[in-house]
Write a structure and sequence with these properties.
mainly beta, two-stranded antiparallel ribbon
Amino acid sequence: MGEGVTSTSTGTLSNAFSLHAGERVIIYGLQKDASYTVTEDAIPLGYAFSEVSKTQAGTIIAGQTKVAVFENTYEGTYAKLTVKESVPDGTTGDRTREFDITV
């Protein structure tokens, strides 16, 4: 997705888009004192929202550029589960016996 969405509306602007890492969208022509809310709706499996909130809001101030930055942390999609069976030492249990386990 590139940059350059232009707003000439005095009402509500609503536009959904997707971005890859490093991409941005710039929205031009916003009225001063307008409020905005930008929300990252969903993230791919294995990623987590960073400390920055998934929703950012503010007010447009004439002559200033507002920036909503979203940073996601990759945590991986797979983990390891170890299943271990034991018969404690010092018991009279049969340590060679097989036990049925369901995961």
